[in-house]
Design goal:
six-stranded mixed β-sheet, 9 helices, alpha/beta, 272 residues, three-stranded antiparallel β-sheet, single chain, disordered N terminus
Length: 272
């Protein structure tokens, strides 16, 4: 085992960070999005939520972030209810769309969460520049979103999530709309950020291949209503590189995860 692999293994065995116990989410229209979801995530893990459309992956992510309330059951993040830990600054969220302010520069888009937290621009400059450097956008601080490619806009969104220096990074299908080459590059960038900053990451995806490449553990969810039906720990080289994509271990992990995903069809509840 390499030194890097040993570090990654130690992190996966870290203390409990998130616990979901009997979590249930029903919307006002009667739709049950999540039912009896139970999951424990440890500090330093890279978790992917994988499952068919409508299985509650994004709903579960938003409940962990405190963006949606829980109808029943309990979620704790570092022993607190979601959104309560240090004013919510421990958690960064990257949405499916970059959701940038078109009238603001890249710098000001990344500065936004610090400004909302009461920090002055002068005080925040070093942190914004650090976040931009971490995603390779130092030279674009004065650019506007209309001047950026789709991949660059998503990098800005990631920098904005990192500027608060969170311990938990939640990513809701951030690369689904991007071309394959850009997606591969951003996958590698996210893994580097995970290692460099000691993050815990939860990543929502529809892609078996993406989940296997990124994750230390894949959590497979079944639809109607959403709940965990399988958890797969993944062996593989750390840090992950393009060499892993071409390895027998990657191919075997993809096969195992694909088979588990197919089995979710047996868990559909036709009464909901």
């Amino acid at each position: 085992m390499t030194a890097e692999a040993a570090v990654s293994a130690d992190r996966v065995r870290g203390p409990e960070m998130i616990r979901m116990a009997g979590v249930h989410k029903q919307f006002a229209n009667g739709t049950v999005a999540v039912r009896d979801m139970n999951l424990t995530i440890r500090q330093g893990e890279f978790i992917s939520f994988l499952g068919p459309s409508g299985c509650g992956k994004s709903t579960a992510l938003k409940m962990i972030a405190g963006l949606l309330s829980v109808s029943a059951g309990e979620i704790t993040v570092n022993g607190h209810r979601p959104g309560e830990q240090t004013g919510g600054q421990d958690t960064g969220f990257v949405f499916q769309e970059a959701t940038l302010m078109p009238w603001a520069t890249v710098f000001d888009n990344v500065f936004l969460p610090l400004r909302l937290g009461g920090m002055r621009r002068r005080e925040a400059r070093d942190r914004v520049e650090e976040a931009l450097a971490s995603v390779g956008l130092t030279r674009f601080a004065r650019a506007y979103p209309r001047e950026l490619s789709g991949g660059m806009k998503m990098r800005v969104s990631i920098a904005r999530a990192l500027v608060t220096r969170p311990r938990l990074l939640l990513m809701d299908e951030p690369f689904a709309a991007l071309d394959e080459m850009t997606r591969f590059k951003l996958n590698n960038d996210v893994l580097k950020l995970w290692e460099r900053h000691g993050l815990t990451v939860i990543f929502v995806t529809h892609s078996v291949f993406e989940s296997v490449y990124l994750s230390s553990r894949v959590v497979i969810m079944a639809a109607r209503p959403g709940r965990v039906v399988s958890e797969i720990d993944l062996a593989g080289d750390h840090p992950r590189t393009d060499r892993y994509r071409n390895s027998p271990a990657y191919a075997e992990n993809c096969r195992v995860v694909s088979a588990a995903l197919e089995e979710t069809l047996d868990h559909v509840d036709i009464d909901h």
